[in-house]
Amino acid sequence: KAGVKDYKLTYYTPDYETKDTDILAAFRVTPQPGVPPEEAGAAVAAESSTGTWTTVWTDGLTSLDRYKGRCYHIESVVGEENQYIAYVAYPLDLFEEGSVTNMFTSIVGNVFGFKALRALRLEDLRIPTAYSKTFQGPPHGIQVERDKLNKYGRPLLGCTIKPKLGLSAKNYGRAVYECLRGGLDFTKDDENVNSQPFMRWRDRFVFCAEAIYKAQA
């Protein structure tokens, strides 16, 4: 098709030797009919890194060879028709330090609707030590948590408040109080809880703080 790149020419590099600092991803790829597996794997590498469907003049303003993802190996999935594992290497400089969001936005956020593919799934991911070290980690460990709670010599016990959605802030605070008075050390919000109309985070904070002080009385 006129004006459309052949990704395989740039992003399929079977001779590439991976580096210890590369982020490595394994994708299960099902190409569209007529699309070679090497082209499908290269398309994943391209669209999750520096690739664009056509050549643009600004390509010449950067070193695409330095920042591009590379599909360095393709293998058939045993027992599955037209399914392949595409191995892609990403240079470390492609990602913001200490940002899982940025990394996954690139690797799995921009390729799953790609037209060259009938199906795509991320099967495995290797994150190098060099990237892991850019994360600051928690500000303190279990000992500080025990000191704050004044609980020693046993596991800390907690729960997630349920139902996870639909409680008012007042009833949420009531549930927190009952949990703490019943002997739990802590409660936590479900990951679906943010600041929805039925329970704004500020109201939840106020009622939970009240529940904590009341439970400690």
How would you characterize this protein structure?
This protein is an alpha+beta fold. The protein has two domains: 3-133, RuBisCO large subunit, N-terminal domain (Alpha-Beta Plaits), CATH 3.30.70; 142-216, no CATH class. Helix content is 32%, strand content 18%. The protein contains eight helices and six strands. The protein has helices at 8-11, 37-47, 64-67, 100-108, 129-132, 142-149, 169-181, 201-216; strands at 23-31, 70-76, 84-90, 117-126, 158-160, 186-188. It has a four-stranded antiparallel beta sheet with strand order 2-3-1-4, with helices on one face. The protein has a two-stranded parallel ribbon with strand order 5-6. A hairpin with a 7-residue loop joins strand 2 and strand 3.
Quick take:
This protein is 32% helix and 18% strand. The chain is α+β, with helices and mostly antiparallel strands and 217 residues long.
Q: How are the SSEs ordered, and which strands pair?
A:
Blueprint: H1 8-11, E1 23-31, H2 37-47, H3 64-67, E2 70-76, E3 84-90, H4 100-108, E4 117-126, H5 129-132, H6 142-149, E5 158-160, H7 169-181, E6 186-188, H8 201-216
Helix pairs in contact: 7-8
